[in-house]
Design goal:
649 residues; alpha+beta; four-stranded mixed beta sheet
Length: 649
């Protein structure tokens, strides 16, 4: 069937447009992103049995296994996002906790944070847009920004878009991203997006434009303003080299100083104003975090990490099927740190030398990476605890994501790498990467992950060596990188489930029962509390104010003194990044303990809690209770078991 002339002409123009540069890849990325949003599909583990009304009859569609090890994602990160969807405003966090806006990138009532935390601000549209779609959009937005921005950043620096795509895909597919629910992606994406806009503003200022580059600089500054938020140790470790390289690249360009200074001052000034404003708006939560026993007062020193945990990322596919020993899957995960060895071979074999001015990005990433390599490789003693920034990042955490820097650095170098005539250098690079990979996998087999087979060790090391050799030999071809991306996906393909919707957290009958009472509770300043972590998440996800639940930035000291008037047990409740768990002990004295990490454990008589918190309206108990202040209100099902809701008088 012949199409009408206007349609045929438009179709032809579209095909020509798509075929230019990487437009086809961008279009495909946007289409996939749109489909995931429309279907409400994520890789969240909130479909776990603990968050089901009846685990034997779960609601919605899920392919794959929810991972209990992703407890922070399940009970905190995603729970807070869903709570915002329920309230159309701030999440219903415990009044025992200080503000956690900075830790979880959500706005409460501040002006600046509404813009800096735009990704959470958009969740308030849940009255118009389906919740599952907004949840998926929030989940995938950092990945979308990374996939679109990194190739553009490479192109702006005069490097290959192809390797920008390669780097972005490998970062998304790295085991540390998979087993940390895409957190490393989120911690670099927004800063990267801001830097792309800053460089674009400079380029447009240089062409004599005014309005559009100013708008780009302002938008870029707002993106960069969120750099020290969320999980700051990783955010600064991954974001600062991108920001530093971008700023230095602009400053070192030839030509008039005006466009350079305008771009940096507009972007930097906006970032400073909005970043400082956000910090000021959240100063109470920040002070609470910095004053906690954990993690605020913790300072660490340089410490050598096990070789297997640093270089073993390609062999971590076994984590999809087996539990490690003495460590969990998230703690064991890492990125492709072995690429540093690939980088060294390229540097030694390259016919060119990295001149500082033309290769400022490589120099910046190289120097920054060297600093962190020392941090995770050497025992430099307790004196290193005084080094700012580094002393906030534990060496095990640094080792997990340092491979992200390696991926970007090696892709920057490969963008300039010319196809070698012989196979000598490619084979050398392949062998130099294959041997450490095999050794690291062998060490993992001997310690943390004994389920790794000898055959898998040979297969993984051989595949790494082959891919490195082929890409080094054919750096201007796309097919080796596509094959490499496929191989990189295999170790993480089943790490997380594919979940459509929000599981039982909003759609189940029990969730609807809680959600129906939440608006009145919020309006009347009433509180609930529960003795089950899964029920705590149910309450939070439906916007029900609750004393139990999360304490992410730190405690509200005045609120805790209602339970501990003399602050005699402040070392137990002065903790951040964690949870508040209640257990009901009618007729018994109040106890406050901790797991010496991130959980506060409160054993208390509900009547005592009512005396301390007169606005306590109801409690949820896992077993029937008998106390003079309690009256059974209703019984619901959660986790396949009864949960008893008591009115407290």
């Amino acid at each position: 069937m012949k199409l009408p002339a206007p349609i045929a002409e438009a179709s032809s123009r579209f095909k020509q447009w798509v075929c230019v540069n990487d437009r086809a890849a961008r279009v495909i990325t946007l289409v996939v992103f749109a489909v995931l949003i429309l279907l409400g599909i994520t890789t969240s583990s909130v479909g776990i049995a603990d968050l089901r009304q009846d685990p034997s009859n779960p609601l919605g569609w899920q392919f794959g296994i929810s991972r209990p090890i992703r407890s922070d994602e399940i009970y905190a990160y995603s729970a807070i996002v869903i709570s915002i969807l329920a309230t159309h405003g701030a999440p219903s966090l415990s009044p025992l906790a200080a503000r956690a806006d900075l830790i979880h990138r959500f706005p409460t009532d501040g002006f600046f944070e509404q813009f800096v935390f735009f990704d959470s601000t958009m969740l308030r549209a849940s009255g118009i847009i389906p919740e599952s779609m907004l949840f998926a959009a929030h989940w995938w937005l950092p990945s979308l920004i990374l996939l679109l921005a990194l190739p553009t950043w490479f192109h702006q620096l005069g490097r290959s878009r192809r390797y920008g795509w390669f780097a972005a895909i490998l970062i998304v597919l790295s085991p540390s991203s998979a087993w940390w629910s895409l957190m490393p992606v989120a911690l670099i994406a927004y800063t990267l997006g801001g830097c792309v806009l800053m460089i674009a503003a400079f380029q447009r200022f240089a062409r004599g434009q005014r309005v559009l580059p100013v708008a780009m600089g302002v938008a870029g500054g707002i993106l960069i303003a969120g750099l020290p938020t969320f999980y700051a140790p990783w955010s600064l470790m991954l974001g600062l080299p991108v920001l530093g390289a971008s700023t230095l690249w602009i400053l070192l360009q030839s030509g008039a100083w005006g466009p350079r200074l305008k771009a940096i001052l507009v972007t930097g000034g906006t970032a400073a104003v909005f970043g400082t404003g956000t910090l000021v708006e959240n100063r109470e939560g920040l002070q609470a975090l910095l004053g906690t026993v954990y993690p605020g007062l913790r300072r660490v020193e340089a410490d050598p990490q096990p070789f297997g945990r640093i270089f073993g990322a390609p062999a971590l596919g076994q984590l999809q099927y087996s539990e490690p020993i003495g460590v969990n899957a998230s703690e064991l995960s890492s990125s492709f740190t072995v690429f540093f060895i690939w980088m060294l071979v390229l540097m030694l074999a390259a016919p060119w030398r990295l001149k500082f001015r033309e290769n400022i990005a490589e120099w910046t990433f190289g120097a920054w990476s060297a600093l962190w390599i020392v941090w995770i490789s050497m025992d430099l003693g307790v004196s290193t605890r005084i080094i700012p920034l580094l002393n906030l990042v534990t060496p095990p955490r640094a080792a997990q994501v340092i491979g992200v820097l390696a991926v970007i650095l090696v892709c920057l170098l490969l963008s300039r790498w010319s196809p070698p005539v012989s196979w000598r250098v490619p084979l050398l690079a392949g062998a130099a990467c294959a041997l450490p990979t095999g050794y690291a996998a062998s060490l993992l087999k001997a310690s943390d992950l004994p389920a790794i087979s000898s055959g898998l060790i040979v297969l993984v090391s051989g595949t790494v060596g082959l891919m490195v050799a082929v890409i080094t030999k054919y750096p201007q071809r796309s097919w080796p990188m596509i094959i490499c991306a496929v191989f990189a996906a295999l170790p993480v393909a089943r790490a997380n489930p594919m979940l459509a919707g929000l599981g039982d957290l909003r759609a189940s009958e029990t969730a609807k029962t809680v959600a129906a009472q939440a608006p009145a509770a919020r309006a009347g300043g009433k509180l609930w509390a529960a003795d089950n972590p899964g029920v705590n998440t149910l309450l939070l996800a439906n916007g029900m104010p609750s004393l139990s639940g999360l304490q992410r930035s730190g405690p509200d000291a005045a609120a805790w003194q209602k339970l501990d008037p003399q602050s005699a047990l402040s070392d137990k409740w002065n903790r951040g990044g964690g949870y508040i768990f209640f257990s009901w002990t009618p007729g018994q004295p109040t106890t406050i303990g901790s797991n010496d990490f991130d959980a506060v454990l409160v054993g208390i008589d509900p009547c005592t809690l009512k005396t301390a918190w007169p606005n306590l309206d109801k409690i949820v108990a896992s077993i029937p209770l008998n106390a003079p202040c309690l009256g059974l209100d209703s019984e619901v099902q959660w986790q396949g078991r009864p949960a008893y809701i008591y009115a407290v008088s």
